[in-house]
Amino acid sequence: TVLRDPATPGQETLLDLERANLFLIPLDNERRWYRYHHLFGELLRQRLALQPGAAELITELHTRASIWYETQGLDVEAFQHAIAANDVDRAARLVEGDGMPLLFRGAVMPVLNWLASLPAAVMDERPGLWVLYASAQLFVGRLPAVEETLLAAEAALRDAEPTPATNDLIGHIAAIRAAMAVARADGPTILAQSLRALDYLHADNLPVRTATIWTLGVAHDLQGNRVAAGRAYLEAIADSQAIGHFIITIAALIGLGGVQERENQLPLAVETYHSVLGLSGNAPLPVAAEAHLGLARIYYEWNNLEAAEEHGQKSLQLARQLEETDRAIACELFLVRLALAQGDEAEADVRLARVGQAARDEAFAGQRPNVAAAQVQMLLRQAERRPAGLDDAARLAAARDLPVSQARVYLAQGDAPAALALLEPLHQEMTTKGWADEALKLSVLWALAAQSQGANEEAMNLLADALANSAPGGFVRLFVDEGAPMAELLARAAAQGIVPDYAGQLLAAFPRREARVAAKASGQALIEPLSERELEVLALVAAGLSNAQISERLFLALSTVKGHNRNIFGKLGVKRRTEAVARARELGLV
């Protein structure tokens, strides 16, 4: 087909070459696809270049190859040969695609590199290439360059006659600006530009209209309308999958995963985020940072800190490739939280100082409340050894108007009524909005505040609701991060038979000393608390040691060990070792 020599049948020639062992390698069992050994192929290209009129011949061969690849439906290869033939018109047509631009089908980098190589005059003659160039820059996170490219597109369109084609380009420009506003979390701009895009875009321009459905979903999300956001994301996923627009499939899946996460549907969100990573491949685009960050948050919540750190670090690496966005700050803030959970306060302090500096940039102002909340958490953590930290935390929470952080400060100060005065109306507001995640977090704090005030029945009712709502999602750190007061409350819940299996699982996730102290402090968990020696014996029983082994380990008489066992069984209300261990685990004693 490429050589156009009727006297030389292509298939027979290929078979002859293969039989002669002339470096031809079959690529399938039907002997339809072949390639030369790369060294032999390079030799043939060098010899071709030495022939008279080689430049014209090579250009013609690339053009024929491009035509052949296009007829086979291999548009990326056709595009690459059109570039090699320096056929701008053909390459431009292939890039624009038949209803689906080539870069929307995964060929972002080849298209981006070609467009970057073209002179501005060539682009001005074809304003659509400017718009596709901006799209490609957006996909790889080169945000500072996008607006400049869009301005060049608008300049090239300025004197153009209004036609359906030029209106469609105006709509595409608006759609790109909506997507850029997504990176800044600028809801009003996303909404305005999305609506403008839908006004101008041609009805048949399904790729860009589908992208605009996604940006409308983001606008709804930022407005707090999670139901409308979820519907838009699902519509964008279905439409993008139908037309093969995998970039928007990825973006909409990320949005849907976020909605599922905020609705406390953590297992479902994990599946969605993993779908994103599967579509992203081994060399994911920077946008996959959001999926890794979502997985990091969920694995953290499930107390799988190793997996959380792995995804958090991957997210940060990708987020750093996104210029002029706050995603790297969001990753760093997560890693601050993770470092505190791992007991590495120094690491958390270093990261927090770094993000605090970055958040001073006006472009990242949206992250300042989150940074301040993390700073309050750090100050409260340090208050045990630096009492002035509590006053610093109180001033910062008040200055930044952070009601949840203020409630935490009040609890640390022992002022439960003040904490309740903030938490109750906030909980009601989140419940009315249908924000399941925020309502759950507030119910946990509310239960702690009620316990601190001595309203034990109210605290237990609130905790029971929180446990019922969090059990399907498998929440762990939501409770563990609250420390000994929550362990005490959970021990009481387990003793009263309130979701005992889940409460016992949560107690087992607390540091052992913290859980023991909490269980001992819980007047309702045990009628009579275990002594330190009894707790020591109980831990060895749980480890599987016999009475004789315990006697030897603790240098106690065997009769003394048996006496401790009787006391332990009586206080726990059990008759056998296995029952004692199970009951102790429920109460967080082992």
Provide structural commentary.
The chain is built from 33 helices and two strands. The chain is mainly α and 590 residues long. It has a two-stranded antiparallel ribbon with strand order 1-2. The model has no long low-confidence stretch (mean pLDDT 85).
3D shape: elongated
- The total of beta strands comes to 2
Low-confidence stretches: none
Mean pLDDT rating: 85
Strand order of the largest sheet: 1-2
Kindly summarize this structure in a few lines.
The chain is mainly alpha-helical and 590 residues long.
Descriptors:
33 helices, two-stranded antiparallel ribbon, single chain, 590 residues, mainly alpha
Question: What is the strand and helix layout of this fold?
Answer:
Blueprint lengths: L9 H10 L4 E3 L7 E3 L1 H12 L4 H18 L3 H10 L3 H9 L11 H10 L2 H6 L1 H13 L3 H15 L6 H20 L3 H14 L5 H17 L3 H18 L2 H17 L3 H15 L8 H13 L3 H15 L7 H15 L3 H14 L9 H15 L5 H12 L3 H10 L3 H18 L2 H18 L2 H15 L6 H4 L3 H12 L4 H10 L2 H10 L10 H11 L4 H8 L3 H15 L4 H10 L4
Antiparallel strand pairs: 1-2
Helix pairs in contact: 3-4, 4-5, 6-8, 8-9, 8-10, 9-10, 10-11, 10-12, 11-12, 12-13, 12-14, 13-14, 14-15, 14-16, 15-16, 16-17, 16-18, 17-18, 18-19, 18-20, 19-20, 20-21, 20-22, 21-22, 22-23, 22-24, 23-24, 24-25, 25-27, 27-28, 27-29, 30-32, 31-32
